[in-house]
Sequence to fold (180 residues):
Amino acid sequence: SSGINAEYGHPEGYYKTLFIAHWKQNILNQSKLRFYSKVKTNFGEEAYLSLQNRAHRSQISKLRSSSHDLNIERGRYGAKSLNTSNKACRFCCEDDRILHLEQLPFFEPAIIESEDHVLTTCPMYNSIRSALSENLKSLLMLHEYKLIMSSNHAKEFGKYVHECFELRNSKQTPTDTSSR
Fold:
């Protein structure tokens, strides 16, 4: 016990250090948390949690934790989880063509509807993206999500994420809504 107190000051510090080390290791070892590991590297409360707009704050939280319905997440589970077409961006790829082309040895993987794709490159969101401040656009293109969410850009970013998901959900096809 005295070893713990001498090294960390008190047992709480020791357990906090152990917890944070375990937390960081879990983030790095889970593919589901790939995006989360880009936005969260230090243990503690995030600045975006103080956003006044609940919908924007909620969308950021869902995006960060992969608790959304982007195809990268929806295609992660079930018998067809290895099928790339289940994770493809429906705005950039044609599902029927991908399914057949996947069998060919020279096939290049489909464009996956990931968090990065939606936020930075998917043409479906270009009009929303073009309205962003130049500074935020630059940070997005550099994939500086951690910096975005811990800065004065969090409010603008929350609005952007919310608008992207609103647009995406307004473009649902009948087959998209039946699989939920």
The chain has a mean pLDDT of 78. The first helix runs from residue 2 to 8. The chain has twelve helices and no strands. The radius of gyration is 20 Å.
